[in-house]
Amino acid sequence: MHDHIKLLAEGDVNIVLDQRLSLYLVSHESEVTEIWNSVVEKNDGQLYNAPLCFFSGVEPCGNKWVMRVFFGEYRHFVAQRNGLELGLTPLGVSGVVLCKVEDEYCAVIGTRSESVTLYPRALEFVPSGGVDDTALISKERVDPQCVLTKELEEELGVPQDAIQKIVPIAVVDDCVGGVVDLCYAIFLGDIHLLKKKWCAENNDEYEAFECVPLRNLQSWLRSTPPGSVVPTTMVLAKMLKRVLALASLE
Hints:
By secondary structure, the protein is of the alpha+beta class. It has two domains: 5-11 and 91-246, Nucleoside Triphosphate Pyrophosphohydrolase (Alpha-Beta Complex); 14-81, no CATH class. Helices cover 28% and strands 35% of the residues. It is built from eight helices and eleven strands. It has helices at 23-26, 29-42, 74-81, 145-156, 191-199, 214-222, 231-237, 240-246; strands spanning 5-10, 13-17, 51-61, 64-73, 91-101, 104-112, 123-125, 128-130, 165-174, 179-190, 206-213. Strands 1, 5, 6, 7, 8, 9, 10 and 11 form an eight-stranded mixed β-sheet that branches. Strands 2-4-3 form a three-stranded mixed β-sheet. The two termini are 24 Å apart. The model has no long low-confidence stretch (mean pLDDT 87). InterPro entries: NUDIX_hydrolase-like_dom_sf. It comes from Pseudodesulfovibrio piezophilus (strain DSM 21447 / JCM 15486 / C1TLV30) (Desulfovibrio piezophilus).
């Protein structure tokens, strides 16, 4: 396991929404508002609040895992990053797009834009993103895969109906980035359609994409400069053979 990454769970995870945890944030409302207003002013008003999902914990339950989450707002996270200790860990999703090229599976890897907050210009599996209220199916149900498919369309231009299968991989804690990620493999079809889609998209998060055959993936990653690959990607790359077996597609 990578030094910066903790593997919290493997396989499928049931998500439990516990909004009682959101009440904790109310007690810090005045401090959060003061910090938020100050940060917005420093950014000339170019900062926008939105709902954001936070990780509370994950534990085994029978042959599955149960994860507890709750919703707050982006301004709570901003307040924490500016000195107010709230104990918040944002929940994210990380996907590994797998598509066939001449009957061989390849993984799509993107080069992150220089303008992103975490890991600028680093290589990573796509798509990825924070879990927002797109995942809120009802007052009691959260489905992070909704965020995953939205990010896939935004980052690669691939619509949901092009997805053949989504397979849960793991829950990982990026100790450096301060984010817990739900990780999935996304199986797509024809690579030529995929390339046509992503070349047509204007993308603010990624500078380039490439497909790497899975048989060459480990050697390809080892050939990259130290620190140039997002830690979560390094960990997931070692788990893909098992994922293919679980998906009955190997």
